[in-house]
Amino acid sequence: MSFKPKVLIVDDSEINRLILTDMLEDKYDLIEAGDGKEAIRLMNDHGFELSLVLLDYMMPEMDGFEVLEVMRERGWNTQLPVIMISAETGADYIHKAYDLGVYDFISRPFDASIVTHRVENMILLDARQKHLERLVAAQVQEKTRQSNMLINILSHIVEFRNEESGRHVLNVRAMTKLLLTELRAMDPTFTMDDEQIERIALASALHDVGKMSIDEKILNKPGRLTDEEFEQMKRHTIYGAQMLEKVPSYQHDELVKTAIEIARWHHERYDGKGYPDHLVGEQIPISAQVVALADVYDALTEERVYKKAFSPEQALTMILNGECGCFSQRLLRCLERARRRLKQVDFGPDPSASADPSSLSTSAPVYNEKSISNLVYERTKYAFYTSRSQEMRFEYTFSPPVLTLSMLAAHKFNLDSVIADPLDQPDLMAVLGQDNIERLCDRIRQLSWERPECELELALQENGEPHWFNFILHGIFNEEECHGYFGLIVDVHDEKVKREALERSAHHDGLTGLVNKAYAPVLIQSRLDEKTNDHFALMIIDLDSFKTANDENGHKFGDEVLQTLASRITRCIRSYDVAARIGGDEFVVFLQYHDHITPVIDRIFHSIQGEYKGYPIQTSVGVATTETCARDYDVLFETADRLLYEVKKSGKNAYRIDHLAQGE
Fold first, then answer.
1. Could you give the domains of the chain?
2. pTM for this one?
């Protein structure tokens, strides 16, 4: 039995429910509610089993808007799409519905085609959206894991050189997060969000990076430091900040800015007696204040080369009595509030573990909230950039076969945002074209796990006209199997037209539009190399007595004569033959023939003769063929040029073909 998405129909009218059931029951598993309260109960019972809610607006006791309010309060509106049913079309009503999280509208009286298509599209779109969210969440999680791992490795290198426990960095990080979270709960004026707290906790791992520049003898001295040695040790704060300030390319990154604050000022005291800058009170950034407290606490409770470890209770008492520095009163209150959880700040031997202090308490973990926050941030940022850059996004899955277009792409091509069975949709086929589909499929077949990306330019139909776009595709692979792909469509029409114009101007003569002298040898030789078994002829055409045209009528007239001859040559040959202007009044024609060349040359020769505004157009022609010459442009040209010279010597206005070909 195949899976059917579950749809909840909420309408106080039994007739309306029957009509919708009759339209949808073949494809969907339907459940019904006769009022808003029953709908809330069913949503609570079925939860994420539901794929869609069809919600009536006008109902007794609890109307559609009240149902939406409850859904928003419970967080269901972000996970469960709602289509509202109503005959109401007022702007205020529609705006309010959208504000409460409605995805779409269906008007009464019902149209079976509209209802089925909108329900199907909405369920497919929501499925694609959730799939994208899972992909982005996985990418964010992996990016976070890698960042954590690299920073932990660097910080452990510092700790290793200092001969301290590798857990110190992890404990400071965990305690930093714990204290900031406690401060936010305790002080309503402290409004730092989860992302900022996570950033400070991560940056705390680099608080002692400056110790890399301190002599190991000082770092690991078992006894008391001399005054001179202590002054040198104090400079690790300055060295650390300087190291981070010189990190290339990331000076404006908030994580680096925070790490610099912490590295420089985590030994400042609230009373101004710290170092290196003797900051007082709230001049010290909160990031450095919290890390300083976490650093002192963990230093007291861990064994060092110069001391034994104190118990957590002893360390707490020493800090609260002011024996180990001076801290703000609100941070000390946070420390007291977190007293019971401080003993549990321990991460064991795994240096790559995530330091999440919420796991140290009985309160609910913040991991999901953090992941969702990151996901929303990444999606918002991505949508902003793509909308501003005019990039159009798409995603295609093989099973089920669904094409999802971004709003910009759907608008650009006048298509639906979600297209099921796209290869069977005539509107999409009209935009793409069969040739483009075959080219796309050919490139997609070449994608692999190792090489998942490709791009190609395609001319699509836009408003009935061909328009150039660049397709950039990335395959979605699970091990070796491709499940679909996503990518971008970039409008490159203007750029391509300009590029082709530049290429044409580089390869063609500006006066006649024929291939120019520089490009002709390259193009002709490529044709010779491409078709090694075919016969070709190369003609050199010289305009007889052209100097008199310029002398008697001026250079403008002479240019018109050249343009006329070029036009006649073009009309006499096929589109895949080559016509070039190689000098002032000299032209080359390169053409393919099958059995006999003489009739072809004779036809062309007589077709280009004539006159222009009373000036006689007469030519002399030399012809070389691949039957008697090597398949080499230079050899053919030299032979044809020699024959042209013989024609000129014998009286002009004639043609001569190499002697073996003439005996054909």
1. 6-134 (3.40.50.2300), 162-371 (1.10.3210.10), 390-497 (3.30.450.20), 508-662 (3.30.70.270)
2. 0.38
